[in-house]
Amino acid sequence: MSASILTWSIIAAQVLLGLAMCCATFRLVAGPRAQDRILGLDTLYVNAMLMLVTFGIRTGSTLYFEAALVIGLLGFVATVALAKFLMRGEVIE
């Protein structure tokens, strides 16, 4: 009983994460300002990271968790660099 509940809840989470990724992609493409596009990109990488975590739970493979960690680290650095670029006009001082 509990295994089927876990399976259906993971499937529901993946569907909802897919919808959230569609919304973030729309904000990334149609954002009126650069700040909106950066927030869309930030949301997109967080959703992709969570999608990999749910795939890892579903399959039982640790490779997905490591990939999610790498995406999280690179996405954070990219968001900080883009925010710094928007504020100052340069990334490296």
Q: Give the CATH level 1 class.
A: Mainly Alpha
What CATH architecture do you see? Orthogonal Bundle
What is the tally of helical segments?
3
Distance between the termini: 58 Å
What is the N-to-C succession of helices and strands?
HHH
Strand content: under 5%
This entry's quaternary arrangement is: single chain
Based on CA atoms alone, the radius of gyration comes out at: 16 Å
| Unreliable stretches | none
Shape summary: elongated
Helix content percent band: over 70%
State the CATH topology.
Helix Hairpins
Q: Give the beta-strand count.
A: 0
Summarize the main sheet.
Answer: none
Overall average pLDDT: 91
The secondary-structure class comes to mainly alpha
Number of separate domains: 1
What features would you describe in this structure?
This protein is mainly alpha-helical. It has one domain (2-88): Helix Hairpins (Orthogonal Bundle), CATH 1.10.287. The protein is 87% helix and 0% strand. α1 (2-30) packs antiparallel against α2 (34-59) and α2 (34-59) packs antiparallel against α3 (63-88). The mean pLDDT is 91. Pfam families: MrpF_PhaF. This is K+/H+ antiporter subunit F. It is a multi-pass membrane protein. It is found in: Cell membrane. Its main location: membrane.
Provide the descriptors you would attach to this structure in a database record.
elongated; mainly alpha; 93 residues
